[in-house]
Amino acid sequence: MKAYIHIGTHKAGSTTIQDYFSQAAPLFGDKLLYYPFGYNLAQKIRDKELTIRMIPRMIPSLEEDLTKTGAKSVFLSGEAFFGDYNSAYSEAYPIARFVEALFSNFEVYIIVLFRSQPNFYESMY
């Protein structure tokens, strides 16, 4: 199985991507792509609502969902995968370890879009 993980850097169009997938997911058909919890997973990892110890319980649930839908791929998107710029992205490493463990049985593709620094700072105002 394949996992496409969009790490949404801040102010680089993440919300647009998430909105698109939320609206278009039914058009893909369950067997093509499963778009489950997206932003919420990343947010819960960052906010420490989910921990590495919970992964053994989460993997069967994710695999069961994929089996039910017949999907060959899963797509996740979230700014929280990148961490929080207010804390200098200090959560990035623990989040990466969590995602690595959760998707250890998947062929993982990471998608990251960056915005130029001057445009990023301008968009913060």
List the helices and strands and how they pair.
Layout: E1 2-8, H1 14-28, H2 38-46, H3 55-69, E2 73-78, H4 92-102, E3 107-113, H5 117-123
Count the beta strands.
Answer: 3
Shape: globular
Estimated share of beta-strand residues? 15-25%
- Mean pLDDT rating: 77
| First-residue to last-residue Cα separation | 41 Å
Low-confidence stretches: none
Structural class by secondary-structure content: alpha/beta
CATH architecture: 3-Layer(aba) Sandwich
* CATH class category: Alpha Beta
Indicate the percent of residues in helices: 40-55%
Q: Please, how many domains?
A: 1
The CATH topology is given as: Rossmann fold
Q: Radius of gyration over alpha carbons?
A: 15 Å
Largest sheet composition: 3 strands, parallel
Give the SSE string. Answer: EHHHEHEH
Total helices: the number is 5
Across the major sheet, the strand order is 2-1-3
